Amino acid sequence: MSVEIKVPTVGESITEVTLSQWLKQDGDYVEMDENIAELESDKATFELPAERAGILRIVAQEGDTLEIGALVARIEEGGAPAADKTDSDGATAKTESKQETAPQPASQPAAQAPVAANYATGTASPAAAKILREKGIEADALAGTGKDGRVTKADAEKASAGAPKAQESGKSAVTEAPKPVTGARNERREKLSALRKTIAKRLVSVKNETAMLTTFNEVNMQPIMDLRAKYKDAFKEKYGVGLGFMSFFTKAVCTALKEWPAVNARIEETEIVYHDFADISIAVSAPKGLVVPVIRNAESLSLYEIEKEVINLATKARDNKLTIDEMTGGTFTITNGGVFGSMMSTPIINAPQSAILGMHNIIQRPVAENGQVVIRPMMYVALSYDHRIIDGRESVSFLVRVKQLLEDPARLLLEV
Question: pTM for the full model?
Fold first, then answer.
């Protein structure tokens, strides 16, 4: 008696998964609850355990896309598998039988009778003509095997690129030898992962279904950098985490979202849904692609609590340990392309949210302060927003408020 192992339900919105890797081989003995395979959804990777002890019989293959409830494998009763002599003997017998009954090669067919020349002789079909043009071969240089001597697609594919062209005006056409291409020209193909397919689908959907606009501003990061330099040692000694930029940006965003609630809202059919909380999604680069875990109720967290949560989520993302709940929801997203050196970009909205803030690289640039040119560490910030729900006044005012809070960090503590 065998037990069927099927794809389990892993989330309400997930309808299919990809079998990314078998952890056991076909015919292996597995223990109950031992992990036998890795399944990858559009949000996370999880392991598939054996539901009983026995011999594993694999049904689905690596790379297969499986629907929820689809059969993955069977587990048969029994101990460690022994060599199956019957199957081996049977396979040998079948092989020998095939060898004995294999038909002898037929004698070479007689040469085809020449086809009488007519209007179709040497004329290539449209598909054949295209192939011959790419190879640089004249159609009338080939003996067509089609009706009335027509050159077929198969004839064109078999034709050698160095085949002689037809003589023109009594002179032999000279075929110039192709120049050799230097350097490696290797190609490789990889199947799109479930995560990458979902990312691609959602990004195209956002571009097509929202009225997305981006507004820009710049932030003088000197006050925050001075504050970090002054208190970073004491901060780490007390809380056990470093004082980074993300906590300042998250606090500034949460304050601005209270003042401009439309930026923290979403459209749901014919209604606008406003939130009195701020679940901040942070874009994190993971080994298998971009993931966006969520900091819940960020508006009620302190700087050190935000830093701890950022480190926790980023570590889980790198180890592929994020759960579905940790990546579901979110009312506003912050993405930091500056860690990769990006100076300016237009981030794409993380649907169904209505806005996303992009941080960028910090560059020492000359700016005017009090009528004098000084060098300051400047960062461009970008807010992409859905113009269907957020007006220009709201988007610009929101970004200006974030700028004010970052350039005067005391406002974050006093909330003024």
Answer: 0.62
Active-site residue, selected from the candidate residues 26, 64, 226, 391: 391
Task: Give the start-end residues of each E strand in 292-410.
Answer: 294-295, 332-336, 355-359, 362-369, 372-386
Say what angle helices 245-259 and 392-407 make with each other, to 10 degrees.
140
Active-site residue among 148, 155, 387, 408?
Answer: 387
**Known catalytic residue at 387:** yes
E-strand ranges in 16-161 read 16-22, 29-30, 35-40, 45-49, 54-58, 65-67, 71-76
Q: What is the rounded distance in angstroms from the CA atom of residue 155 to the CA atom of residue 136?
A: 14
Average pLDDT over the chain, rounded to whole? 82
Alpha helices by DSSP H, listed for 168-278, are 194-209, 222-239, 245-259
Q: What is the pLDDT of residues 134-144, one digit of tens each?
A: 777 777 777 77
Angstrom distances, CA of residue 317 to CA of 9, 44, 241: 22, 9, 18
Question: Any catalytic annotation for residue 87?
Answer: no
- Residue indicated by tokens 């990061």: 221
Reduced to 3 states (helix: H, G, I; strand: E, B; else coil), residue 157 is helix
Is residue 260 a contact partner of residue 398, using CB atoms and an 8 Å limit?
A: yes
Rg (CA), the chain: 33
Mean pLDDT, rounded, for 372-379: 96
Pick the CATH number of 126-158 from 4.10.320.10, 1.10.150.120, 3.30.470.20, 3.10.450.50: 4.10.320.10
Q: For residue 47, give the DSSP letter.
A: E
Residues in Cβ contact with 213 at an 8 Å cutoff, skipping those fewer than 6 apart: 384, 385, 387, 392, 395
Assign domain 2-76 one CATH number from 3.40.50.300, 2.40.50.100, 3.60.21.70, 3.40.430.10. Answer: 2.40.50.100
3-state SS string for 238-269: HHCCCCCHHHHHHHHHHHHHHHCHHHHCEEEC
